[in-house]
Structure formats: C-alpha cells, structure tokens
Amino acid sequence: MKTKSTWQRFKDSYILYSFFRDPVAIISCVILVTLTIVAFTAPVSAPYDPYDTSSISILDAELPPVWMDGGDTNFLLGTDDQGRDLLSTMIYGMRVSIIIGLCAVALQAVLGVIIGLVAGYFGGKLDSFFMRLADVQLSFSYLMVAIFVSAVLQAAIGVGRFEEIAVPFLIVVIGLAQWPQYARTVRASVLAEKKKEYVEASRVIGLRSNRIMWRHILPNCLSPIFVLSTIQVANAIMSEAALSFLGLGMPPHKPSLGSLINIGFEYMLSGSWWITAFPGFLLVVLILVINLLGDWLRDVLNPKLYKG
Q1: pLDDT digits over 152-206, tens only?
Q2: Could you tell me which residue ranges the ABC transmembrane type-1 domain spans (predicted)?
C-alpha cells in the first residue's frame, strides 16, 4: 500500500476540511495574511517612508483624509502631527507591532514549555517550586513591572539609548510577563499524558527522561499550545499597544500602532481625530481576526466543542 505524502495527508485532514466550511475562518485568514504581507513588505507597499526625514514636511502636519475638506490627494488617510503620511506610518507601525508580538510569544513559549514540561513530568518539589514561581509572576501586573524596569533603564542609560532598545525591551518584558500561561497549560497536558501506556512502555524499554519528554510527550501536547499561541499573539500586540500608549514602549519617531494612537490622542479634541482613529481601527481589526482564528482552531482541535 502506497504511503501518503505529508501534503496529501494535510489535504485530506479534518483541519483543512473544517477550514473551508467556516466562512469566518476563511475571511479572518485572508485579512490576516493580507495585513501581514503588507506589513512585512512595507518598503514596497507603503507610499512613503516615515523614517526618511527628507520626504517629510512639518507644513503637511495634521492634514485630513483625502475625502475631507483640506485633504491632499498625496495623503490618502491624512497626516500625523509630524507631517508623515498616516497610511505609510500605519503600515510600518503594524510591522513593528507584529514583530514584537511574534517574538514575545516565542519567548513566552520557550520558557513556558520548558518549565511546564519539566514541572509536569518530574513533579514533587520541582513542580511546586515552578508553580509557586508562576503564581508570584501572575500576582504582578506586567504594566507595573514595565514601568519599574523602564524607569530604571532610562535613568541608567538615558532616554536616547533607551529608545534604541525599545523593541527588545518590549519583547523581553511582555515575554517574561506571560510565560506562566504556557507553563500551566503544558503542565496540565503533561500530567494527563505521562499516565498513559506509551509513556510507561518508553520507560520499560529504558528510554531516558529527556527523550520521553521531548520526543513522545511534547508532540501530544501541541494542540493546546497552538491554540494558546494564537491568543497570546493577540495579547502581546495589545500589550505593546498599551505600553506604547503609556509612553513606555516605542518612541514617536519609531511608530507602532500603540505609539500612533498615543500621538494622536492629544489631538482628538482639536479635530485631528484620524491620527488616533485609523491606527486604532487597524489594531482592532488585527486583534479581531487573530482571535477569530484562535477560536476556530480551538474548536477544530477539540472535537467535543466543534459543531460544524
């Protein structure tokens, strides 16, 4: 009997079948892929480069969208307070937000999976230590930690230097703040898996604990990890936006969706609502489609919840 290829098995899989039967998942996926492609091809897709100061004029500051009185056809969605094309700034800012979100979740996942796997498999005092550490971590708001660390760093290295390391700072702060979510999820799955017969059989034939954990138990814990990752990416992007809005994240000259909302917020009452409204709308759409895909993936990977 001929063995099916990986691609053939994927085409015949329940996940793909369910995806094409769910219009919400299809639309969400199309929007997310489109936004991601546009963001990561910003030098090509954006009409202007917001980092190129030679193409920016303060005389163009706070121009309204093209369909309003006073709008300029060169700036479809208007300009911000620095005279930058808002559409271009949003595209570049979305790229920064997505990169921070993905990298922060990668850090969360690495820490959380390792800790959850070790705690769940070995149990005992090691399990108690890691879970109490997770409880302590969750008792502190990441915003409080970010404010403290940001203040210390800015005082130690200066505001200018801090702005240069804003991206890695946000990745580390958000990543370290949310790893307990992964640790608890993986630990719960490992506690259920390690009681099954295939784990006992692996021990009987003399396999080492590392091999059992990484080659046998972890692959059977991937479903909840995938679902959690979609939720955590949305949460990480929102966290970046919140920190930038508070002035603790990306600086104004290095736009992200959060910093753009922060920049435009003070101009809302003066009538320049578009500086905040359009980046805010884009952020809502981005978070919404990620969450909708996460809900679909959760239902598909848990057949008891899926209703077809």
Answers
A1: 777 777 767 777 788 888 888 888 888 888 999 899 888 888 888 888 888 888 8
A2: 94-294
